[in-house]
Design a protein that fits this description.
InterPro entries: DUF937 (IPR009282). It is a single chain. This protein is mainly alpha-helical. The chain has one domain. Helices cover 64% and strands 0% of the residues. The chain contains ten helices and no strands. The radius of gyration is 16 Å and the shape is globular.
Length: 210
């Protein structure tokens, strides 16, 4: 799953747009994705967070993760997503990610997060609500995108049957769990390796207290 997500990110275009070395950008992208996925997972574990995220996905069925160019990415939208995913802990996450490769990486990660966030939501929307299966919102009509005022700034789902809402939440959590597991080499957040260390040290402790 993480390889699929990485392929959807125009890393070289992004590096050129922000004036950074392509190799350093690729490394920072690989470090940032598990943190974004972990933050989304932490939000999706709460009932209200899951519903807000499902509503946000309804607004991100935009094909951005299917080969869009970097100039199509709404960085202001990305800033809002990052702010809602990490809250007041954004700087702590950035600093922890940057600590993997030196202080210069922190500034690169800070540039990347609002660029990557809309792509990640677009990719997640395709997996959860745009997959064309019986469990997707697009197929069942369980969610109507475009409604305002969701905590992620992307809308609220319409009222839906309790079972339908539960099904979508389950799909969302399963997709995030699989993606996060493939990023860290395990289905659990207590994984080993550099990405697992970030999730354990930052997301497990800071986001877990939210």
């Amino acid at each position: 799953m993480i390889d699929q997500l990485l392929r959807s990110i125009p890393t070289d275009q992004i590096a050129e747009a922000i004036g950074e070395d392509p190799q350093a950008t690729r490394q920072a992208v690989k470090a940032s994705l598990p943190a974004l996925l972990g933050g989304l997972t932490a939000n999706a574990e709460r009932a209200d967070g899951a519903q807000s995220l499902l509503a946000a996905l309804g607004r991100h069925q935009d094909g951005l993760a299917e080969g869009a160019s970097v100039d199509q990415i709404d960085v202001q939208d990305g800033e809002k997503i990052v702010g809602h995913v990490f809250g007041g802990n954004t700087d702590a996450v950035v600093n922890q990610l940057g600590g993997m490769s030196g202080p210069q990486t922190s500034s690169l990660v800070r540039k990347l997060l609002p660029i990557l966030a809309p792509i990640v939501l677009s990719w997640l929307a395709k997996q959860v609500v745009g997959g064309g299966g019986g469990g997707s919102a697009a197929a069942t009509g369980r969610q109507a995108p475009g409604q305002p005022d969701g905590p992620l700034g992307q809308g609220r789902p319409e009222a839906s049957p309790e079972q339908g809402s539960t099904d979508l939440t389950s799909v969302l959590q399963d997709v995030l769990g699989s993606a996060l597991g493939s990023a860290t080499g395990t289905r659990s957040s207590g994984s080993s390796g550099s990405s697992g260390g970030i999730l354990s040290d930052v997301l497990g402790s800071i986001l877990g207290r939210r």
